[in-house]
Every structure is written in C-alpha cells, then in structure tokens.
Design goal:
Distance between the termini: 103 Å
Order of helices and strands: HEEEEEEEEE
Strand order of the largest sheet: 3-4-7-6-5
Keywords: Membrane, Transmembrane, Transmembrane helix
Number of strands: 9
Shape: rod-shaped
Length: 145
C-alpha cells in the first residue's frame, strides 16, 4: 500500500473521476447569462424617473416643467399653498409679485418627493393643474387672495 500504484484496488489513492470537468463551468456560465438577461429586461421595463426640469415665474403663479407626468397632491393650509410632487429635483427658492405685493416660494426635497410652499403676508389660495405640452408636462400653480 505504499505509493500510488494500483494494486488490486487495495490502495489509498482515489480512483480517477470519470465525470467531465466542463459541467460545473457550463452551469456557472448559464447562471451568469441568465442573470445578465434578467438585469437587461429589468432595465428596459423600469419606468423613467420623474424629474423637475425648470421653474418659471409667471403672472400670479408658477409654471413647473417635468419630463414625465408628476403625481401631485396639494392643499391650501391656513393661507399658504403647499403642493407635493412625486418627482426628483433640486431645492430652489424665489419671489414673485402678485398685485404688486411680494410672494415667496420655496421648493424642498422630502421623503415623498418635492414640496412646493408658497407664502405671503396675506392669506393665499391656490389652484393647480397639469397639462402635456411638447412632450413635457407643465404644472401651473395659480395664486389669488
């Protein structure tokens, strides 16, 4: 029983493996290809992110331009106007004039998306609607006392 010579199958050396060495490689290759195809299909079916592209100050309100239709929820709360957009974008702030008086607006990021808050020294009410124009979505926020 010394050495690795075969002597009537009574030795400590393992018998040669008759299975193909390529089988584990084939299984691994199939798994990798399946993963890559799944990732490509997932990438193609994922909807595009909603992004705020531009904020324009107009007479008595704001126009907000998005690449996709934003889901929004707005309220008139104690003289201020608050609108929440399910979209991505950068924080901004500014002022507009309504009937010769200043009105401040601020766009902030939150857990729900973007929050537009409009405040003035007097109570405000707001109305908003979304329309599709030239492949983009415009949300018009109109203010009145």
């Amino acid at each position: 029983m010394h050495g690795s010579r075969r002597e009537d199958d009574e030795h400590s050396t393992l018998e040669p493996d008759l299975r193909s060495k390529a089988f584990p490689r084939v299984i691994l290759s199939l798994a990798i290809v399946g993963l890559m195809v799944g990732l490509m299909i997932g990438r193609l079916t994922t909807p595009e992110e909603r992004v705020l592209e531009q904020v324009t100050v107009v007479q008595d309100g704001l126009d907000l331009w998005f690449n996709e239709e934003p889901k929004l929820h707005g309220e008139n709360v104690e003289g201020t106007v608050a609108v929440v957009f399910e979209a991505q974008g950068k924080a901004q702030r500014g002022q507009l004039t309504m009937q010769g008086k200043p009105v401040g607006w601020r766009l902030q990021k939150s857990e729900e998306g973007l929050v537009l808050t409009v405040v003035a020294a007097r109570p405000l009410r707001g109305e908003w609607n979304a329309t599709k124009e030239a492949g983009r979505w415009r949300v018009q926020v109109r203010l009145h006392e």
